[in-house]
């Protein structure tokens, strides 16, 4: 984009809000259009000032930054939101992303990091601080062992057999793998189809693979 990035600073702590706005005002690439102390005020100020980017705190009275971001994403989708907060909790990070924030930085970030975030988000990009980017990557790489098992209506043995069915094994191969009789495997497969309300083996395989089985 041409010209400086128009920014609205939103934070309920006046010392931080005004100090941060004053810092941004010294940056050639940024033009501070105004400030707001609550999420509700932020919505009104965005409608009035039409900033390119809103730098948004999370914990605020009246309307918190997550809900304000969610509403801005609907009412002003072209306005980028950079969340700037003290919170490093996974829940807060992902709530902000789901709400539509395109940047997330911790208070205490270096000024040049903030400027890069503001200008990148204004240009349509997405920015997270280096530490948070690592946390996000770690979150998605984390084994999902704590997640609920798919198809809770199945017994552990039935789920095991469904996993092998989804992997493409025949009843005979499953029987050999699990040291079961062919009749026992057929009975388990039949029970699985009944419990999943699957019309046939192919339908069960599709559902199982959609749930992550058969890999």
UniProtKB/TrEMBL annotation:
<dbReference type="GO" id="GO:0006355">
    <property type="term" value="P:regulation of DNA-templated transcription"/>
</dbReference>
<dbReference type="GO" id="GO:0003677">
    <property type="term" value="F:DNA binding"/>
</dbReference>
<dbReference type="InterPro" id="IPR011006">
    <property type="entry name" value="CheY-like_superfamily"/>
</dbReference>
<keyword id="KW-0597">Phosphoprotein</keyword>
<dbReference type="InterPro" id="IPR039420">
    <property type="entry name" value="WalR-like"/>
</dbReference>
<dbReference type="InterPro" id="IPR001789">
    <property type="entry name" value="Sig_transdc_resp-reg_receiver"/>
</dbReference>
<dbReference type="GO" id="GO:0000160">
    <property type="term" value="P:phosphorelay signal transduction system"/>
</dbReference>
<feature type="domain" description="Response regulatory">
    <location>
        <begin position="6"/>
        <end position="122"/>
    </location>
</feature>
<dbReference type="Pfam" id="PF00072">
    <property type="entry name" value="Response_reg"/>
</dbReference>
<dbReference type="Pfam" id="PF00196">
    <property type="entry name" value="GerE"/>
</dbReference>
<feature type="modified residue" description="4-aspartylphosphate">
    <location>
        <position position="57"/>
    </location>
</feature>
<keyword id="KW-0804">Transcription</keyword>
<keyword id="KW-0238">DNA-binding</keyword>
<dbReference type="InterPro" id="IPR016032">
    <property type="entry name" value="Sig_transdc_resp-reg_C-effctor"/>
</dbReference>
<dbReference type="InterPro" id="IPR058245">
    <property type="entry name" value="NreC/VraR/RcsB-like_REC"/>
</dbReference>
<keyword id="KW-0805">Transcription regulation</keyword>
<dbReference type="InterPro" id="IPR000792">
    <property type="entry name" value="Tscrpt_reg_LuxR_C"/>
</dbReference>
<feature type="domain" description="HTH luxR-type">
    <location>
        <begin position="147"/>
        <end position="212"/>
    </location>
</feature>
<protein>
    <submittedName>
        <fullName>Response regulator transcription factor</fullName>
    </submittedName>
</protein>
């Amino acid at each position: 984009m041409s010209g400086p990035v128009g920014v609205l600073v939103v934070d309920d702590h006046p010392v931080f809000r005004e100090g941060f706005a004053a810092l941004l005002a010294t940056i050639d690439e940024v033009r501070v259009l105004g400030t707001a102390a609550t999420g509700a005020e932020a919505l009104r100020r965005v409608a009035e000032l039409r900033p390119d980017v809103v730098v948004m705190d999370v914990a605020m009275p009246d309307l918190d930054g997550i809900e304000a971001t969610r509403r801005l994403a609907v009412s002003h989708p072209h306005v980028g939101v950079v969340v700037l907060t003290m919170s490093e909790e996974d829940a807060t990070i992902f709530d902000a992303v789901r709400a539509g924030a395109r940047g997330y930085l911790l208070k205490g970030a270096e000024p040049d990091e903030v400027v890069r975030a503001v200008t990148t988000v204004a240009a349509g990009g997405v920015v997270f601080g280096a530490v948070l980017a690592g946390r996000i990557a770690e979150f998605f790489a984390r084994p999902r062992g704590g997640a609920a098992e798919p198809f809770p209506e199945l017994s552990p043995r039935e789920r095991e057999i469904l996993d092998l069915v989804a992997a493409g094994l025949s009843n005979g191969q499953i029987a050999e793998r699990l040291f079961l009789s062919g009749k026992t495997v057929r009975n388990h497969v039949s029970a699985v189809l009944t419990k999943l309300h699957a019309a046939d083996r192919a339908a069960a395989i599709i559902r199982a693979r959609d749930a992550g089985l058969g890999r």
